[in-house]
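Archive record:
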Amino acid sequence: MSLHLFPSAPWSDRAGRFSAARALAFAAALVPGILLLTRWVGDDLGARPLAEAIHVSGDWAMRFVLTAIAVTPLARLSGAAKLFAVRRTLGLAGFAWAAVHVVFWAADLGFDPATLAFEAAVRPYLTLGLVGFLGLAAMAATSSDGMVRRLGTERWKRLHGLVHPIVILALVHLTLQSKLDLAQGALLTGLAVGGLTLRVAIFHRLRLGWGAVVAATVAAFLGAAGWETLWFALKTGRDVGPIVAANLSAAARIAPSWWAVGITLGLGCAAMASKSASGRRHDQGSARRPSFERPLQGGEDDKGTARLYPMPPPRRWFEIIL
């Protein structure tokens, strides 16, 4: 049964019907808040609760933005156009948690405008973070269908293409404010590089298959390992040999680069398995349906008989748009 009680609700599709996928994405966006509230009630946020809340909300903002970016490659790999239904919800969740991140930071400084301006000016990681946040705010403000029509498709796509440099700014922001442990930053960087590899393949209209999955997995490993090694070298000035060795071996720990490999490869395999299963269902359905033919428009053979040819397979709508 379709639910039309709340046509503009985050769990409704464009026709106002209930969408299980959007409802699940919306519920996922609320989970970090529930976890953070539980930790606050249980006095589990450490000696500086606001500082911990700042870090947690920033990490979740990055996770949701990266997940939103991953929707297009996963949809193209799996052939599941329904995935596009959650892209906007996930992107808005990323912006919402980035806004919470900024509010917590401002609260930690007493909401004093002079102090906030001074800190943003003298600390480069804050400057980069705020620039990225303003970019996300512009994208969130123009995410509706009405804004797409108002801006025009091409201008809208150019604006929302800024999400990639925004992610880079956010990763640098995360790295610069990290003191000793860059595990989270390295993992997110690896996932971002892996996803960007697939986006580049899509941009160049390359066929996505197992080769693309392998390329993205290798890129995720190199991105995470390279980012962690570069940060260690710039932060400490010491020999990077131990960091390189740690990323090549899982004896002492499971490095962020290997977590990036596991997540990227797992998602890629799941997408390809979904595509294979969908193809088998399509073939079985085609075998049960009679084949229909229609006359070639305006075409007759030399005997005056209309030429017949099979109907071409329909293209998926997202293959036309992207």
